[in-house]
Design a protein that fits this description.
The protein has 332 residues and is α/β, with parallel strands linked by helices. It contains 16 helices and ten strands. The protein has one domain (6-331): Metal-dependent hydrolases (TIM Barrel). Helix content is 49%, strand content 12%.
């Protein structure tokens, strides 16, 4: 039986979350940092782009019509990463994740057979993340979305161990999607904040999970890395060399870093069929899932066509197109 076409990288914008944080202490400073990181030219383009695509980001009917036009049967819908708000204090963070989870679940309820949702967790407050994950799952969401780090706290931080354990215990899907890059103003021209920043953050975050031993301690994690995992899969040989050549690099994980790629999942959004073939070679065809970044301009309007351009075998094509994701969603 031919599997459905499943897009695991699609976003929803939640006006309720924007209204919650507007005017709160810390919000203005976070916006100023975002402005510095992106630069004025990028913001001048991004503002109109988001306004133009707002119906697809907020209206389920528009989303479903776009899915039909692109040949997509099911979307895994995650909040816009602009909703992370890792600057928020404990009280605000709890209100925020509950509101984001509820609003995402409501959006997906318009077509529960075609839209599956992900919630949010406040990585800046590790003591809340298990509760936030449980709340998302109680609402029928498939799991949660998280960024590459929170200010002053990497994904390798021991404080996150209960969260990883709970994610394995529940079978939750985790979607790793960076927002912003700590290279800051070095990337404030030519949209380098996204084109270089996002794949860099992916590579750093995944390296923290690998080299720290998180994936050794929690081998059952079901984590999908956006943007094909960034730079890491195509440069994993350098990580393997460091692991074998240096005692400090090899101290935290039990196996060569490349072996952990086969424990992770990656979306197909790499914008180059040759890179996609390499991702499939190093991670395995059973670990790559279709992704479009709907409806943003850094995504693809024809995810199936982009996949077809990689000229995979029929079995691998159908696995990436939807078979792998359908199996993953059936388990959640």
């Amino acid at each position: 039986m031919t599997p459905p076409t499943v897009d695991v990288h699609a976003h929803v914008l939640l006006p309720e979350v924007d209204a919650l944080v507007a005017g709160l202490p810390g919000h203005a400073e976070a916006r100023e940092l975002d402005t510095r990181r992106n630069g004025p030219a990028a913001l001048a383009v991004s503002g109109p782009m988001v306004r133009e695509r707002l119906p697809g980001l907020t209206e389920a009917g528009v989303r479903l019509a776009a899915m039909d036009a692109r040949g997509v049967d099911v979307q895994l819908v995650s909040p816009s990463p602009s909703h992370y708000h890792y600057w928020a204090d404990e009280e605000t963070a709890e209100k925020l994740y509950r509101l984001a989870n509820e609003a995402t679940a409501a959006h997906c309820s318009a077509a529960p057979d075609r839209l599956r949702g992900l919630g949010l967790v406040p990585l800046q407050h590790p003591e809340q993340t298990v509760r936030a994950l449980d709340h998302a799952l109680e609402l029928g969401l498939a799991g949660v979305e998280l960024s590459s780090h929170a200010p002053g706290r990497e994904l390798s931080d021991p404080a996150h161990e209960p969260f990883w354990s709970r994610a394995v215990e529940t079978g939750a899907i985790l979607f790793l999607h960076p927002f912003g890059c700590t290279l800051d103003e070095r990337l404030d021209q030519w949209y380098l904040s996204n084109t270089v920043g996002q794949p860099t953050e992916n590579a750093v975050a995944l390296s923290h999970l690998i080299f720290s031993g998180v994936l050794d301690r929690h081998p059952g994690l079901r984590l999908i890395a956006a943007h094909g995992g960034g730079y890491l899969p195509t440069h994993i040989g350098r990580s393997d060399h460091a692991w074998s050549a240096r005692s400090d690099a090899g101290a935290g994980c039990a196996h060569p870093p490349s072996s952990y790629l086969k424990r992770l999942y990656f979306d197909s959004l790499v914008h180059d069929p040759h890179v996609l073939r390499e991702l499939i070679r190093v991670a395995g065809a059973d670990r790559v899932l279709l992704g479009s970044d709907f409806p943003f301009d850094m995504g693809t309007e024809d995810p199936v066509g982009a996949l077809r351009a990689a000229r995979l075998s029929d079995a691998d094509f159908h696995a990436v197109r939807g078979g792998n994701a359908a199996a993953l969603l059936r388990k959640d």
